[in-house]
Design brief:
- With 128 residues, this protein is an all-alpha fold.
- It has a single domain, classed as AhpD-like (Up-down Bundle).
- Helices cover 59% and strands 0% of the residues.
- It has helices at residues 4-10, 21-35, 38-50, 72-86, 95-104, 107-122.
- Helix 2 runs parallel beside helix 6 and helix 4 (72-86) packs across helix 6.
- The longest helix is centred in the C-terminal third of the chain and has 16 residues, at 107-122.
- The two termini are 19 Å apart.
Length: 128
Amino acid sequence: MDLTGHLALSRLLGFQRTLDERTRLLVSQLAAERSGCRWCIERGRHEWRLAGLPLILLRHITHPATSALLTERDRAALDFAEAVVSGGCAGEVPEAVLQRTRLVFSDGEIAELALCLADHHLLNDPDS
């Protein structure tokens, strides 16, 4: 599934952002870690601390399926993020991952996830 439509939706004038901060920060941190940008990683950790979220959760973002500390919503967001960042700049997400994401998130929230990942990973992608 191509993410172009979701990115376009997130850029529309009047688009209402509804994605919760925890989810936004989780996917941002995964994108930062996958890009290898030390500044982005540390900035994400700083934002996480400012939000008052438990730091131990950040240790679980690379293996969400086995973590008892992450919710199904967290897992769906992280699986979506992993599919995007492992696909480089192609903007393709496997249909099965997108379908699972749609069970948990609205189209608007998926658009926000895609925007967040574009802002935090695709700009740092060494393959682009």
